[in-house]
Structure formats: structure tokens, C-alpha cells
Amino acid sequence: MSKKDNKFYLRTAFGLLDRDSDGHVTPAELQFMLRNLGIEVSDDLISDLIKDASKSGNGLIDENEFMQWVTKIQALQGMDVSSGGGDSEEEITKDLLAAFKVFDRDDNGYITRDELRTALEMIGEPVTDAQLNQVLALGDIDHDGRIDYEEFVKMLL
């Protein structure tokens, strides 16, 4: 992955973490995301993670702090963001499910038009009605007005 792509993905990840779009990730937002990834962590660990990432010491993570923190973690793991890297099928499936759960804000198994709009706006991608219709037309294979997990995966792969 190129550095430019990595930066884009980190910004996207921050936008998805920052559920209320206030420019900061709170402990509750971080814990919510980790739970959606199937990772149960204690409040103490969340507090430690926030302290590690937040250079301002305010108990929140802003976008720059988040990008520096994740880049540091990538370096510690020996991840070369300029190489392609090969995720296993299991890792890809886990990532796709986590992404789907972030879009599916009411956790009903479907991404609705409103959820799609909200998610795109959260990551700084304002979308017109025409663009939203195009994305829905692309993803909504069974034409029921919403995107289920299978449709989501087919749209992305």
C-alpha cells in the first residue's frame, strides 16, 4: 500500500471511529469500534490506549494523533505501508464485517440510504442524491432499497 493510500485509509478509519463527527475519538467510540471488530477490552485498557494516543492529554484522540498513533503501531508490527501486503481470507472477511457493522448503525443487518449517506459524510465525502442513488444501484442487487452484508461484500470485491 502506498503512503498516500495508507493516509487515505487512516483518515477514513478516523472518520468511522468518530461517530458523532466532532473531530475527536472518545473512549466510548473506540470501545464501540473494537467491540464491532469482536475485540472485548476493559475500560482500563481503553483508557490506556487513549492515553497512549492522545498527546494533548485531554482523554480524546484527534485525527493527527490517531494517524501518528496508528503509524507507530504499523512500524512496531513491521508493516511496510509501501508494500502490497497480503491479508488472509479470514482477515479480509473480518475487516469487511467490521466495515459493514460501522455502516449499519442500527445493527439490523442492512445499510439503508440514510446510513450510507451518514457514513460517507462522516468520512468527509459529501454525496448528492444522484451519487447516492448510483451507489445504491450498484450495491443493492435484490432491489429492496438497502444493502445487506452479501451485497456489501460483492460491491467491494
TrEMBL record:
InterPro entries: Centrin_CML-like, EF-hand-dom_pair, EF_Hand_1_Ca_BS, EF_hand_dom. Gene3D superfamilies: EF-hand (1.10.238.10). Pfam families: EF-hand_7. Coiled coil: none annotated. PROSITE patterns: EF_HAND_1 (PS00018), EF_HAND_2 (PS50222). Keywords: Calcium, Metal-binding, Repeat. It comes from the Eukaryota. The keyword Repeat applies. Residues 5-40, 41-76, 91-126, 127-157 form the EF-hand domain. GO terms for molecular function: calcium ion binding. This is Calcium-binding protein E63-1 isoform X5.
